[in-house]
């Protein structure tokens, strides 16, 4: 999944966090950190670089947002790629959000650990969606592992797929799928597996639509059409390295062992169904007799 030349992204939607989680307000887009920075600039009469001061505070969490990126940067730089992927996801799912009267999810890229509405997340948590604060959490070490295993080509593909899958869980949340599903079971045809395969399918819907939807700001489509080879690489990657999970409020921190997905073949099949069908209707894993 390669971003189209001429594309430009400035969603400012991806928040970044590094350092220990300190229970900062979720979804504020770094407003707290910006205020602190402003105070520092005022106190020092503009002589100090607030970013350096914040980072030098020792043990504190720092926040920021990803700024303007070109398509070329999105294809080579991870934070730009996250921003561009979210930008295109917002556009593709905009009509669904409008229809449901819902907001887009908050998105946090974090390093080491962070506080979430579902408990403390660490690098071992992997990427996940938290329904309680309607936020996507992406730890950078997971993406480092992807790139180590898959190289410069496969890593980015897998990253985009994982982000689109997590966004799919948000779609399930706002459309009521999550509430209707019985998340307790873990068998091969359980609701848990059907929820996960549907999120894969919704990721496919995004890839299909992003390759055919023209960004009104730039006049070019978000993505180049995906090749079969790219599709296989992305899905193998996600299956090989690890997985996400939907967290319920547990009070005991994020638990990485509480999730169930379908087989790699099933995940690939449903992603492809979404990619070709380009609609939520093509992702009805709950009515499917065979997954
Ligand atoms: Zn999932």
TrEMBL record:
<keyword id="KW-1133">Transmembrane helix</keyword>
<keyword id="KW-0812">Transmembrane</keyword>
<keyword id="KW-0472">Membrane</keyword>
<dbReference type="InterPro" id="IPR007343">
    <property type="entry name" value="Uncharacterised_pept_Zn_put"/>
</dbReference>
<protein>
    <submittedName>
        <fullName>Neutral zinc metallopeptidase</fullName>
    </submittedName>
</protein>
<dbReference type="Pfam" id="PF04228">
    <property type="entry name" value="Zn_peptidase"/>
</dbReference>
<feature type="transmembrane region" description="Helical">
    <location>
        <begin position="23"/>
        <end position="43"/>
    </location>
</feature>
């Amino acid at each position: 999944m390669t971003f189209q030349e001429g594309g430009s992204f400035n969603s400012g939607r991806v928040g970044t966090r590094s350092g220990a989680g300190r229970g900062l307000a979720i979804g504020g887009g770094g407003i707290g950190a910006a205020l602190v920075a402003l105070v520092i600039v005022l106190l020092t009469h503009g002589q100090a670089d607030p970013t350096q001061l914040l980072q030098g505070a020792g043990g504190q969490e720092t926040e920021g947002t990803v700024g303007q990126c070109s398509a070329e940067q999105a294809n080579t730089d991870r934070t730009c790629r996250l921003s561009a992927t979210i930008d295109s996801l917002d556009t593709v799912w905009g009509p669904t959000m409008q229809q449901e009267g819902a907001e887009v999810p908050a998105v946090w890229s974090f390093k080491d650990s962070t506080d979430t509405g579902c408990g403390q997340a660490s690098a071992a948590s992997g990427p996940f969606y938290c329904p309680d604060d309607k936020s996507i959490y992406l730890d950078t070490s997971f993406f480092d592992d992807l790139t180590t295993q898959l190289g410069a080509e496969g890593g980015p593909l897998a990253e985009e797929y994982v982000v689109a899958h997590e966004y799919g869980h948000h779609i399930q949340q706002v459309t009521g799928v999550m509430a209707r599903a019985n998340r307790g079971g873990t068998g091969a045809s359980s609701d848990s597996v059907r929820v996960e395969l549907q999120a894969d399918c919704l990721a496919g819907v995004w890839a299909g639509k992003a390759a055919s939807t023209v960004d009104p700001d730039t006049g070019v489509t978000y993505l180049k059409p995906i090749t079969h080879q790219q599709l296989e690489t992305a899905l193998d990657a996600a299956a090989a390295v690890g997985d996400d999970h939907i967290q319920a409020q547990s009070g005991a921190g994020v638990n990485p062992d509480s999730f169930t997905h379908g087989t790699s073949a099933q995940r690939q099949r449903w992603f492809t169904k979404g990619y070709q069908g380009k609609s939520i209707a093509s992702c009805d894993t709950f009515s499917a007799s065979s997954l």
